[in-house]
Each structure stands twice: as C-alpha cells, then as structure tokens.
C-alpha cells in the first residue's frame, strides 16, 4: 500500500483478455477478438484520486490492479454478462462501498 495514502479501496472486476491484434473493429466483430476472461482487483487510492481529480494518480501505485492467475476462454463462458463477481478478503465476502454526497 502506498505509505502516504489513507484511503485504499478495492473493486472486483471482470477483465476481458484480447487474443489478437485489433483496430477499427465493429461492435458486431468485437467478441471475435476476445480470448477469454480473468478477474482483476481495481485497487484505488481514493484520497489521491479525489484530491486533484486525476484518476490515474489514484489507480497507478505499485502493486495496484492484481489480476487472476487464470484465463477462462470464451468457449467456457458463452455470456460474460451472466457472471457473478465477488471479492473475498480473509474468507469474508466484501460488500461494494458507495460514496454518498
């Protein structure tokens, strides 16, 4: 964790792994370029991020964005929108935090 941050947060997300070079791909062709899926913890230092509005500063610290060690191929997951994503920390399922105004 960055020593100067006091508000490090987690976000469990699905990562799409692109399997071959692509440019100017149509929406209809997009899935033809997907090799598979893995998980990513989109870690954020919220105090860095909100201090000056720069998202990159809050998401680019060393060790942020660890990814799962496996890729599940598209033939094993016909519809990624039906997946359930959970983050567990020390055996406990973490809940999504929402910021209120």
Topology:
Elements: E1 8-9, E2 12-18, E3 34-41, E4 44-45, H1 46-52, H2 55-59, E5 72-73, E6 88-89, E7 92-93
Antiparallel strand pairs: 1-4, 2-3, 3-5, 6-7
The number of helical elements comes to 2
Total count of strands = 7
The major beta sheet can be summarized as: 3 strands, antiparallel
Query: Major sheet: order of its strands?
Result: 2-3-5
Produce a short descriptive summary:
With 101 residues, this protein is an alpha+beta fold.
Describe the structure.
With 101 residues, this protein is α+β, with helices and mostly antiparallel strands. 12% of the residues lie in helices and 25% in strands. The chain contains 2 helices and 7 strands. Strands 2-3-5 form a 3-stranded antiparallel beta sheet, with no helix packed on it. A hairpin with a 2-residue loop joins strand 6 (88-89) and strand 7. The relative contact order is 0.24. The mean pLDDT is 86.
Relevant terms:
101 residues; alpha+beta; two-stranded antiparallel ribbon; 2 helices; 7 strands
């Amino acid at each position: 964790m960055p020593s100067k941050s006091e508000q490090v947060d987690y976000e469990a997300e699905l990562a799409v792994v692109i399997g071959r070079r692509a440019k100017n791909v149509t929406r209809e062709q997009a899935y033809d370029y997907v090799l598979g899926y893995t998980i990513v913890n989109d870690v954020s230092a919220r105090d860095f991020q909100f201090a000056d509005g720069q998202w990159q500063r809050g998401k680019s610290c060393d060790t942020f964005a660890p990814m799962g060690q496996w890729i599940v191929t598209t033939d094993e997951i016909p519809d990624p929108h039906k997946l359930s994503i959970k983050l567990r920390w020390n055996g406990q399922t973490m809940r999504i935090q929402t910021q209120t105004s």
